[in-house]
Amino acid sequence: MPIKSYLAYPVRGRSDELAAALRRLSGCQVFAAVNRDVLVLVTDTPHEAADEALQGALADIPTMDALALVAGIGDAIIDSEATPAGAHQEGPHDPA
Amino acid sequence: MTRRDLLRSMAAAAAISAAEAMFPGILFGAAGSPGTGAAELTPSDGGVTWRKTPCRFCGVGCGLLVGVSNDRAVAVKGDPASPVNRGLCCVKGYHSVMALYGKDRLTRAMVRKDGKLVPVPMKEALDLIASKMAETIKAHGKDAVAMYGSGQWTIPDGYVASKLMKGAIGTNNLEANARLCMASAVTGFMTSFGLDEPMGCYDDIDHADVFVLWGNNMAEMHPVLFSRLLERRLKNPAVKIIDLATRWTRTSMAADRSILFKPQTDLAIANAICHEIIRTDAVHEVFVRDHVSFHEGKTHIGYGLEDKFTFKDEPKTIDLARYRELLADYSVEKVEALSGVPARELRYLASLYADPKKKVMSLWCMGFNQHTRGTWINNLVYNIHLLVGKIATPGNSPFSLTGQPSACGTVREVGTLTQRLPHGDVTEEKARKLAAEIWGVPVERIAAKPTYHTVEMFRAVDRGDIRFLWIQVTNPMVTMPKLRRYRDGLRKDDRFIVVSDVYPTPTTDVADVILPSAFWIEREGMWGNSERRTQHFERMLPPPGEAMSDTWQMIEVARRLGFEKLFPWSEATHIQEIWKEYRRFQAGPEHEMAPYEELRRRPGVMWPFVNGKETKWRYNGQYDPAAKAPFDFYGKSDHRAWIWFRPYEAPPEVPDAQYPFWLNTGRVLEHWHTGSLTRRIPVLHQAVPAAYVEVHPNDARRLNIVNGGRVRLTSRRGTLILPAQIDGRARPPEGQVFVPFFDESYLINELTLDAFCPISGQPDYKKCAVRLERA
Amino acid sequence: MDRSRYFLIGLAVLLMAALVAVVGQSLTAGREPARVMPVVAAPTPTLPTEAGMYARASRAAEYASMPTEPNRRRTLAVYYARRAYPGAPPAIPHPVDEREAFGKACLSCHGSGGWAPRFEAYAPVTPHPEMMSCRQCHVPLTPGGEGRARGPEAVRGSVSDWQTFAPPRLHGSAMPGSPPPIPHALQMRENCRACHAGPGAVSGLRTTHPERVTCRQCHALAAPPAEAFARAPERASR
């Protein structure tokens, strides 16, 4: 499932290091919260095998405490023309 | 936006909504773009740590805080805790860390094979250096090897060099580029006071009423200190800054009074001021009676133009009456004719020094030191202060400014000069015994006779008396006066030249072995600035490639030469151990240095550091525990300061019909020395991208030279074509030109003369004769 | 037996005297002045200085009604392009007369700002006009003669591997609607109005409320977190 989004929780106090480490991985986009130690991670990989490799890389990051999967969009949906139900067209960085 | 982009946004939005549900009020910043090569570094509240260091550049010794993130230096702040600069820097300081990242940084050792430099493993290069050194010593004697270091050497660098050359090998062939910048200041101190380095400190700036700048462009060369002068004047409008110089500069612009004099006549002007002080009965009788003695030396002492030139002074004790007689030729009227300074200006200067209500600080640097009578002119400015008793008290301060970050700390205090040991001179048995004891070597091994000062050392290489030369942290192939002879000399067959540096330079171009050096904060070290302040910096970054600190390079070679026992320290703690050993040399209230832990903790500690307190004013019983009287010049056997009568003597080469212009050389604010560092800092390079020759508008008009036009400069030693600068930031008087030496494409030292002060050995870069023509 | 009584009294007096002497000696020995090793106090963390905070505050009310530059060319990108790293002294983007290196020449435009017809822009205001030696830190981006400012390469350079950190992020309020903290050091930038208010302000940084002059009443310095406040443990007895 090539496009996924997660909430990443860093080890206490090491949020910036985690953000830097995640950004170094290819296929990762990071949105850091400015007033909480939480990051949004969006991954985009070309196929399943690459995604699994990326999972392995994510597991190796020492500054990450926990990673929670929020949404996943699989190959089938990406390749088909249908838009998933409930999609909205805002940009990814609207504050609450 | 592609379909894929839209889906990514949706995934991100879902995650953000989840976060918002869990953490009310959460806010997200902008995204970091995926897959950018360089890690995005975070601003100061995140992964940047700030660590203290003295600045890499001039002798002011500003305290900096370097921002380090992910093993890179990323920013600079002035250290507000440093009493030197109180948080302010200059453009070089603010961009100093950028010098770490030039693309042609040396990272591998290189050896010249069949004329070409090829990279080799560091170990191989070090083996080769050691074997060549041993071979040369065996074939030609220990005085056939030499080392040439730098006032940008850290204190441990200098200490290891001294121990290796003087304690292990047993030769006095150890010199440093500070011979070319501070030697006359040193001999000035030694002849007038018996001990080196200023008796005052930068705090004098906060007390002085008058600042007299003698032949130094302080606004460009010691800018942060000059800002302190300006701040003092801003808060106290009665404070005066007088600029006494041979050309009009930014300093003249800022000064209250700019007085121009003819080159070399500073000698006469200083004597005229003394003459006037005596004539107007402004001598501080009690001070002179109790704390001063009078002396004269030889005159017509030569200029060192011949190889193996030697000079020995013949001091004679005289008295005030005789001193007055000797000054008879220096009335203000006579000196006006000689110097071009109107008599009333000379009287004005004398009145400033004479006024008992005014505290006077005299400041000087290269105008005095790079002078064929450099020792004399240093003596003369002290004479003025001694006659009126304005010395060693807050605000009354003849202050010799230093050019390099550690000319004081390393070259002068550790003594990396042919005649010095870490404490005392090689000629003193007591000093040799102390060194032998601390170093653990037989006292007979330490040579008792100095060999060569820098100019003579390079002459020796040229003649073949020296066959092996190791150059560290300096660029003599740009800075030696009368450059051609010395460049040709080093290039001769059967001369083995080793160069340790961080970037390729004209000096690495003549090297047989190049060693890549760790630069500044890539290794731990200490430097000592103009005001006797030793400042520590830790290793903040890893050096690139195989770069190794200069200290460790020398230790590795020393061990290969069989001297492991003298250099036993581990890499982890060697700097601390070296400091501990070096401190032993300076023990005592006259020179005690602070312990390692204090240096680490504080933004620098001044010496003497006695019982936890810095001695700010030496020789003054109120501040100096080593002084046993209200004023005690304990450097001299009579516990007095020595006034030396020194006459005016002309320079060896003056303008004549064939070469009618004076050539003056120096620096600009933006560039440090030969530019090997600052030209690789883009901001600084493109602020002043190339050298030029400053020409007075009238001369330009006469010779049909336009601003930016090509000018041919010719001296008896060489010729150069440079672009002209007319009415730039500085303006030489008619009949003089000025060329900065930071640009290796314009080797101005091919035109200069290797005449030097016979007492100090320091060459005069400020005066020789050239011809100008439009090219 | 008087003699033995006197003898006993004398002995007692002697013993008393000895007692006083011995006790006195041991008391004063206990009070010998100790050798004090002077301790240099660890520097206390300092608050940023307040000097210059109110400069030009009297005109602040007018800032709200002043025109801003129509094209808004002084953007954050331009602002950072002139600096080798956030916080560095900016390079001078316009040609300068070499004779004008000190105070008055530069301050005539950069002291209070104003419209400069030559450059068709509002002059940015310096937050530190008390520093008189301008050219000590600010060098031209255009060496004498050329009229065009060069781009970020001139400052950061392509002959150098220089990298630096990202400029401070905007926003960062603790709660929605809170005054955002100050994300940069205040050394030599105590006067907020110089960059954040007035026609010469950096667009993107302009404050919505220039008439409020005591900025640091609401906006605090976003410093690295200090040690959390904790009360000292209570003493067992009072």
- What's the multimeric state? heterotrimer
- Principal-axes geometry of chain B comes out as globular
* Uncertain parts of chain B: 32-45
Outline the low-pLDDT stretches of chain C.
Answer: 37-44, 144-151
Q: Structural class of the secondary structure composition of chain C?
A: mainly alpha
pLDDT average of chain B, as an integer?
A: 94
Question: Helix amount of chain B, in percent?
Answer: 25-40%
Number of domains as seen in the coordinates of chain B: 4
Could you tell me how far the N terminus lies from the C terminus of chain C, measured between alpha carbons in angstroms? Answer: 59 Å
Strand segment count of chain B: 29
Biggest sheet statistics of chain C: 2 strands, antiparallel
- Quick check: average pLDDT of chain C? 76
Rg of chain B over CA atoms, rounded to whole Å, is: 27 Å
Distance between the termini of chain B: 61 Å
From the structure above, extract its key features.
heterotrimer, B: 775 residues, alpha/beta, Phosphorylase Kinase, domain 1, Rossmann fold, Dimethylsulfoxide Reductase, domain 2, 4 domains, 7-stranded mixed sheet, 6-stranded mixed beta barrel, 31% helix, C: 238 residues, mainly alpha, two-stranded antiparallel sheet, 6 helices, 2 strands
Brief summary of the model shown:
The complex is a heterotrimer of chains A (96), B (775) and C (238). With 96 residues, chain A is an alpha+beta fold.
